[in-house]
Specification:
Blueprint lengths: L3 H12 L2 E3 L2 H7 L4 E5 H5 L5 E7 L5 H12 L5 H9 L7 E6 L3 E6 L2 E6 L10 H9 L3 E7 L2 E9 L6 H10 L3 E5 L4 H11 L3 E3 L4 H14 L2 E5 L5 H6 L2 E4 L7 H4 L3 E3 L6 H16 L1
Parallel strand pairs: 2-9, 2-11, 9-10, 11-12, 12-13
Antiparallel strand pairs: 1-13, 3-8, 4-5, 5-6, 6-7, 7-8
Bound molecules: adenosine-5'-diphosphate and magnesium ion.
The site of adenosine-5'-diphosphate has 18 residues, from α5, β5, β6 and β7.
């Protein structure tokens, strides 16, 4: 049976928004020495907005945005939502097909338009300016017109304001921090610099994130914090999987050992502190 002090400690944690699923998990939680954190939606607000549009000579900014928006209104990707909201005028599109993890293509006014990652679509003459936007922390998609680069759209998702303080507090607790993200290397490093995180792993697919977690757990007890369905394998691979912003039904919550009911990242060091104190009382 679970000692009464653990029951009390788990009850206290639930009152400040941290759901710990068992007594064994509570005791393991206090031993964690490293946390890996997903970027998009966990460290960032998950409210991406268009903050830059580049075009090649002669192309019109609003027209390029309109072409992209014509396709993106058919997608639910967070980048698509941002682009669809930014266009002043959105023409109709036909034959729209989305390629997950790469981008989207369709026909607008008889022209084939493609929008997607710079890894998938050649940025051509825009390459240097695209890299510069990424270094400022934006995620950039390229727009092709009949297979030729015609523009690029920079989308920014702000860091949650409490992140630098949370990283400093964790460091003070002797807990190492790693950022894991599917985003490109330049954007990832820009956000990590703002956050005060020095260990960054970018361009990771869900299975890459799980492999990175296994490397970390081999060194010291490690937790993973995520929110997306993409993070489920990494949450399962961690000694402690923590799901942010619990709603009850997500795959991320299912695979998690610990769930935070809200999205205040200051709960992370608070929960570690609580679990460590609880451990000292028990042992
Ligand atoms: P993440 O969730 O890390 O952003 P995804 O696998 O969803 O990664 O997408 C990877 C990249 O593919 C995006 O950063 C973007 O460049 C491109 N992409 C995916 N879907 C779209 C879309 N609907 N429109 C434009 N680009 C897209
Ligand atoms: Mg995604």
């Amino acid at each position: 049976s679970v000692p009464i002090t653990v029951v009390a400690a788990i009850g206290a944690a639930s009152k400040f928004g941290v759901i710990i699923k068992s007594g064994a998990i509570f005791e393991r939680f206090g031993g964690v020495r490293h946390v890996a954190v997903d970027k998009t939606g966990t460290l960032t607000r998950n409210k991406p907005t268009v903050t830059a549009v580049l075009t090649v000579d002669g192309a019109d900014v609003d027209q390029v945005l309109g072409w992209a928006a014509a396709l993106e209104q058919h997608s639910t990707h967070p980048l698509a939502t941002a682009i669809a909201a930014a266009a002043p005028d959105t023409p109709a599109a036909a034959d729209v097909t989305e390629l997950a993890g790469h981008g989207i293509q369709g026909v607008v006014d008889g022209i084939t338009i493609t929008v997607g990652s710079p890894r998938w679509l050649d940025p051509g003459a825009l390459a240097d300016r695209v890299a510069s936007l990424e270094e400022q922390g934006m995620t950039v998609v390229i727009v092709h017109r009949d297979g030729e680069h015609v523009g690029a759209i920079g989308v920014r998702d702000e860091l949650r304001p409490e992140v630098p303080e949370v990283v400093r507090t964790l460091t003070g607790q002797g807990i190492g921090v790693t950022m894991l993200t599917g985003d490109n290397v330049r954007t990832a490093h820009a956000l990590a610099a703002q956050a005060g995180i020095t260990d960054v792993r970018a361009e990771m697919r869900p299975e890459d994130k799980a492999a990175a977690i296994s490397e970390l757990t081999a060194v010291a007890p490690a937790a993973m914090i995520g929110d997306g369905i993409n993070d489920a394998p990494a949450l399962a691979a961690a000694d402690i999987g923590i799901a942010m912003g619990a709603t009850g039904s997500d795959a991320a919550i299912e695979s998690a050992d610990v769930a935070f009911t809200g999205h205040d990242l200051r709960l992370i060091p608070r929960a570690f502190d609580h679990a460590r104190r609880g451990r000292r009382i028990i042992n």
